[in-house]
Amino acid sequence: MTLLEYAKSSLAEENWMVRYLSNELEDELQQEHTEMAQHILGRKCLIGFTDQFEESMRRFAKYFGWDKKVALRKVLDCEEKLSGGDNDVTVQFPVHNWKQEAPEGGEVWEALKLKNSHDLELFSYAKKLFESQAIYSH
């Protein structure tokens, strides 16, 4: 099965995060489900992103009090391990270049985008929420 065939099939995930947060696992999603998921993120979650890993870790440390309760060396060791730094266990996975097979705007991209429109809206909200939660890094 090609990636395009997968994206167009019933096997591909469809708005998994909105479904999970709104507890609507089977029926068609409505805007109210996306709004419920956004509400849950806004009230219950501290947002972090892997592409902003260090900033996210700083926020988590400050919010949870790790910067005061845990020795700085332990926090830095944890951060290093989580960011793929030098550690005792090395696991390597085959790398697949999804951007080459599914470039933004291409047929595969658009099929996945269509299937996950609610999750994309939730992701956009999460990015704004991350910016508004900058208070946790000061």
Care to describe what's here?
Helix content is 60%, strand content 0%. The chain is mainly alpha-helical and 138 residues long. α3 (31-44) packs parallel to α9 (117-132).
SSE blueprint:
Elements: H1 3-8, H2 16-22, H3 31-44, H4 53-64, H5 66-69, H6 72-82, H7 98-101, H8 107-115, H9 117-132
Helix pairs in contact: 2-3, 3-9
Structure characteristics:
138 residues; mainly alpha; 60% helix
**Share of β-strand residues:** under 5%
Structural class: mainly alpha
Radius of gyration: 18 Å
Distance between the termini: 49 Å
Poorly predicted ranges: 87-91
Helix share, percent: 55-70%
User: Number of helix segments?
Assistant: 9
If you average the pLDDT, what whole number results? 86
Order of helices and strands: HHHHHHHHH
Shape: globular
Q: State the major sheet.
A: none
Number of beta-strand segments: 0
Number of domains: 1
Task: Summarize, please.
The protein has nine helices and no strands.
